[in-house]
Amino acid sequence: MTRDLPLTSRSLPIALLRAREKVMGPIRLMLADVDITEQQWRVLRVLQEEGPQDPTRIADRACLLLPSLTRILQKLEEKGLIARRPDPEDRRKQVVRITKAGEKIIHDNLSASIRAAERIRAHLGPERYEMLLDLLNELNEMDS
Amino acid sequence: MTRDLPLTSRSLPIALLRAREKVMGPIRLMLADVDITEQQWRVLRVLQEEGPQDPTRIADRACLLLPSLTRILQKLEEKGLIARRPDPEDRRKQVVRITKAGEKIIHDNLSASIRAAERIRAHLGPERYEMLLDLLNELNEMDS
DNA sequence: AATAAATACTTCACATGTTAACAAAAGGAG
DNA sequence: CTCCTTTTGTTAACATGTGAAGTATTTATT
After folding, report:
1. Which residues of chain B have pLDDT under 50?
2. Strand C within 7 A of B11 CB
3. Start and end of every HTH marR-type domain (chains A, B) (predicted)?
4. Segments of chain A assigned E as strands
């Protein structure tokens, strides 16, 4: 009983890819105006929401791998949007925090970001939107 | 009534990112054994499912941008997994097809790929799995 | 305390994502 | 037919994704 592979519209990986592009496209355009990438935006948001923290935790929260994060933190530091200091408790670690300039970037783009999310929510309807998030989170809690 | 941004678990972009990683992680591992990337695999699958076609259509089906596809086709051609010939109707175009070696790659990894998909489906349950695909497709049909 | 194992990044190498610029060919308007 | 526009694919430049190797530091073992 060998089944065929699903068509692309019924292929979960591709459907996820397209959905992500649909959701992030408008946000990327908005961020391009302030010369910030989508990943840099995620890092700033994590720092602004959860406060100063070390790179490993940032990587977990922002869904980035450490090698990528290393480069991103370098760029953000050059731009003056974050600051770093060594962790006195553990000299392997650093403590990263967002600067005033970084908070301004967030503040200036927050409302547009929220509107983009609301637009998606309105398109699907609140119940289906929540259901989508529930299903994705359930998928993400799979062990493996 | 200004709302806060959602936590990462309720952030659609991040939930999509994590879901994609969860789904593709095992497949990436499998493909690494035959020295093929996830994107190269998508291109081969499109060609095997839909037959010979031009790069613009491949890019659409495999959810890749043309500049990425250009490089991927070069790699696949070097590996002997695809072949190209100019389109006699329109000299701007090419016709790309999968080779025997390319079909063998697909054949050798098809069953493991299907098993990975079935595993996800079993975890969510068939109804919820289909619902997830429906919601993603509905999202992808948003205009803009 | 000496050594092995684990942790927290960093660096490297290669592949892709993304935007912009570009060359070649096809289509359309006059 | 000529000029302009569109389409198709490539190249370039920079940023990130990803796995592997490397460095410094801490923790666990003996």
Report:
1. 2-3, 5
2. no
3. 1-141
4. 82-86, 94-98
Domain that holds residue B79: 12-140
Question: Is residue B7 in some structural domain?
Answer: no
Provide, in whole angstroms, the distance separating residue A83's CA from nucleotide C1's C1': 38
> What is the token pair recorded at A136?
């994705």
Q: Would you say residue B2 lies in a domain?
A: no
The answer to whether the C-beta of A39 is closer than 7 A to strand D is yes
At which residue do the structure tokens 């060594």 appear?
A86
Give per-residue pLDDT as tens, B61-81.
999 999 999 999 999 999 999
Strand A94-98 with B94-98, pairing: unpaired
Distance CA A30, CA A38 (A): 10
Q: Which residues of B touch A18 (CB under 8 A)?
A: 63, 136, 140
pLDDT of residue B2: 47
**Chain B residues whose beta carbon lies within 8 Å of the beta carbon of residue A46:** 8
Q: How many domains does chain A have?
A: 1
Structure tokens at B48: 């095997």
Residue B120 forms part of a structural domain: yes
What the block records as the tokens of B117 is 């998909």
Within-domain flag for B1: no
Q: What is the CATH classification number for the domain harbouring B128?
A: 1.10.10.10
In the prediction, which pLDDT does A20 show?
93
Q: What percent of chain A has pLDDT over 70?
A: 93
Q: Smallest CA–C1' separation from A37: which nucleotide? A: D15
pLDDT (tens digit per residue) in A129-139 = 999 999 999 99
